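hi support,

uploading two proteins for the ticket. first:
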Amino acid sequence: MKARIFSLVVMILLMAGVMNAQTSFSDGLSKGKSQNKKIVVNIYSESDTWSQKMDQVYSSPNISSYVNDNFVYVKLNAMGSDKIKYGGKDYTSASLAKFFGATGYPTHVFLGPDGSLLKFNYNGETVSAFSGYVEAGDFEKLLKYFAENKYQNTDLGKIL
């Protein structure tokens, strides 16, 4: 019984780690630059079931730990009206999600520490967003693909 309670407490703390690491887009850009970390942007819709399931993946112990160690984590509401400045232009959360190429939810976008949009090859095409729910094992591969700079010279289709 004590082991179960301890496990539950540890899981809650790990989940809180990702939630605490979540930050506004503008703050995420600042943190990425000051900490020299890439930024992972989780573009979501509050009403979307797959976005909610993806939140569970982000909150899983392995993913949460990896994200906190290697990235600045930002959630961007694809239906939001928050005002955001990016690349010298004004956006709403919704218009920035479209700018990043979100075609469905969730969509994952990676930015360099300087806030630049990271492009990568996926099945022979150059893209800048990865749309859809991703199981934890494959999502860890996706995170490592960017953390280890494999996006610079390896097609993601060979990894996933």
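and the second one:
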Amino acid sequence: MPKFLHTADWQIGRQYGRFPADDAAALAEARFTAVEKLAQLATDHAVDAVLVAGDIFDAQGVSERTLRRVFMALEAYRGPWLLLPGNHDAAVPESVWHRAQRLGIVPPHVHVLLQPGATEFPQLSLAVLATPLTQRQTVTDVSNVFDTLSSSAGLVRVGLAHGSVTGVLDDDIDSGNPIAADRAERAGLDYLALGDWHGLKSINARTWYSGTPEPDRFKDNGAGQALLVDIPQPGAEPQVTPLAVAQYCWQEWQVTLHVPGDVHALCERLAALPPPAVLALQVRGEINLADEQRLQTAVATAQARHRCVEFDRRGLRLVPTPNDLASLQATGYMGDVIEELRNLQEQADGEVATEALAILAGLLREQQEGSAPCS
């Protein structure tokens, strides 16, 4: 009886405009690496097929090089790949799929499911019922077709669809395209493999979202995996096992500093973050100049170790202590400037004042270090 890999939302060709160019390029490349990892997992686990529930490509207009790279990556696993058009790569009249077919780059073992219907693999005891999207958004449930699709006796029935399960994902959907929560039961499916939501989620024992194999958002939703699905016989409950795929771990931290010890805890947390990661760090609260220097060093070290560390310090207010000022030897005019910047932090231009205070403190430290006698 069939054992297969369920994956979705590869989003090949996705752009990462919020990141610096080198980080954006690496994150885009990681999506190709994810496909290679999926092929390796399919081989290692000796699956009978790989089912991809839509949004293989992020847009219809990806380059020919990108197209060729994807289909070349699929050569690494020689079993059947079943690719379903989603909302980003819908089966419109002139789609990315038609371009690939005209280029002659779709391998024989790769099945592009451009029409609703059942594809049977009797030797695998598997029937895959597909409902591709033919436009970016629909208002009707395209999975209705599963209720009317028949399959040969003795075959495990697996549905492949892309959309939002009604009443479950309304706040998290990438598009419309409703799917009934009880579709598997209505259509007599042994398993319903879904795409569109980028996190891993079980709707019920027979209906799952695999999520994207490489995270692309700061959400703690189980992204970065694929699902190994084993169905012992028709009617049996699927045995579903998540498999890790992702190269980068995406995390979003929002930290408020209340006491000096909070800075030490944050620095330790940064040091313990397993590389490589993509981190969005937002820090609020008050910090003295000595701790601000420690935090800057910890962030700079993390930025060197990880793929990307965004540091948002707009909610961080610098409050120099008497020891800070003494260590900077900021007397006279410089002491007055520091005091003025401290006051400006409370006003509308507080962010600029905070940055200026940090720069001034850094310059004073550098001046002290440069004038220090050699030992």
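thanks. also noticed: Residues 249-371 form one domain.
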